[in-house]
Amino acid sequence: MSLRTGAVVPTGEGDMDLTRDPIWRLVRAIAAPASVGFFFHTMFNVVDTWFAGQISTLAQAALSLSFPVFFLVIALGNGLATGTTALIGQELGAGRRQDGARLAAQGLTFGLLAGALLSIGGVLAAPMLFASLGAADEYLGICLAYMLPIFAGGWMFIVIYQFNAALQAQGDTRSNRNFLILGCLLNVGLDPLFIYGVSIGPLHVPAMGVAGIAWATLTVQAMGVVYLARRLRRSGLLGGLVPADFVPRRTAMAAILGQGLPATLNYLSIGIGIYIITWFIAPYGHVSVAAYGIATRVEQIVLLPSIGLGVAALALTAQNMGAGRFERVRESLRATLAAGLSIMTAGAVVIYVFAHELMGLFTADAEVIAAGARYLRIEAFALAGYVVLYVHISSLQGAKRPMFAIWIGLFRQIIAPLIVFSLVTRVFDASLVGVWWSILGIVWFSALVATIVGRRILERAMAQAEAAVSCSVTVDVKACEGSP
Q1: Is residue 314 within 8 Å of 398, Cβ to Cβ?
Q2: How far apart are CA 335 and CA 309, in angstroms?
Q3: Beta-carbon neighbour count of residue 25 at 10 Å?
Q4: Nearest-CA neighbor of 458 among 398, 387, 406?
């Protein structure tokens, strides 16, 4: 039973109320558009990978090598957005809509500032990052041709994430879905336009090669900034705000940083983990690097529903924690886990059976196909473990308990791989397949830890929130003594 007093203000798109509507209906309404959006986001990257392959295998390998570096942008954007979504969602769930609106404004300002720093730092550090991954000469030049423009326009990625955070906190995952669908379709036309160039009358676009893939991406991002800004304005959340609400405020920035930094570090640990895997497989040659890059794209497509379910768990947990509806928090966790495990079981069968065919969609290189198929057939058994991890981490972030994500991320992405991969490749001198089996074991051990420890943290957060609300409404001050 909720301990909150007063009416709950409906939020979200249409008449969707995240604190009262049936959980299963809300999970579908939030997760389905988010999953579709992430599918087209992944297909955006797949399109880039395919066009790079039309240039050369070296260009395709360069994009694969760029992914862990590009993940720095994704980590910062996703992390800050996750923290902002949790903060806004709890304010909306508690009926404090104006406070939620001010947090959205501060999130946009924070995102713009952080994005600017990322752009500057990324451009300066890119040569060193790629050199540390073993890129040199022509290989290094191709990597930089792609990533330098991406870093220069990195601020747009971060701002888009913040627009989406404010929409997502209201249960609106459709707006970002629409942008990602349109962006993917535009990218299909823009990639060849910028790669090969065109001259039609006064229109002249020079042939840019691999750099053209980056400029196509930035063109789509610029359109996304405009579109999502309009969608957020139409949601009404920012209504009544004045320019002063967008001026950086220490308390709001500290709150966003407090929630967003752990989530950013969690996402960053994923990027570092990809970097570590790439570092260990790089000695096996650029064929292995290209195979890993393509195979992970396939894996990401199958995992998309679990990411959408994580979005649903985040939004539902945040608003229902704010509203004091703790049984709905538990129900959200159960529903998202059940849905995810069912979907990933089917996805595992598809990946295992059609591994060669899926790899063949992106490359004709027989060696790359064979190496990637071996990876996919092993990692098919890890898909359900990723669901367990994503859903528990998202629920804890929605409950404003983001630190668990850091610790499990450090273990799963950095500490365990460094130890296990070193043993497998250096001590036992196993083949590359040994690394793939190591990833499987690390994922499932981490999922077990998330189930046991994560649920304890979530229950403790709900108990503390319930005790705090009891103290706020009781007339007996002594009853609050010693409460969390």
Answers
A1: yes
A2: 9
A3: 10
A4: 398
Closest CA to 402 of 146, 43, 56, 87: 87
409/393 Cα distance (integer angstroms): 10
b/e per residue, 309-333, with b = 16+ CB within 10 A?
Answer: bbbbbbbbbbbbbbbbbbebbbbbb
CA distance 387 to 203: 48
User: Distance from CA of residue 255 to its chain's centroid?
Assistant: 20
Return the half-sphere exposure (C-beta side, CA atoms, 13 A cut-off) of residue 67. 27
Closest CA to 126 of 99, 106, 154, 101: 154
Residue the block writes with tokens 């009404």: 236
User: Rounded to the nearest 5°, which phi and psi values hold at 171?
Assistant: 90, 5
Residues 6+ apart with CB under 8 A from 71: 267, 268, 270, 271, 274
Q: Say how far apart CA 402 and CA 317 lie, in whole Å.
A: 13
What is the mean pLDDT, run by run of 10 residues, along the chain of 484 residues?
37 66 91 88 83 80 76 82 88 86 90 88 85 79 87 89 90 90 93 84 79 91 93 86 87 86 80 81 80 85 88 91 90 94 94 92 85 91 94 91 88 91 80 86 94 92 78 49 43
**Structure-block tokens of residue 265:** 């570090």
DSSP-based three-state secondary structure for 200:
strand
Strands (E) in 225-384, as ranges, are none
**Helix segments in 133-245, DSSP class H:** 137-152, 154-168, 174-196, 210-235
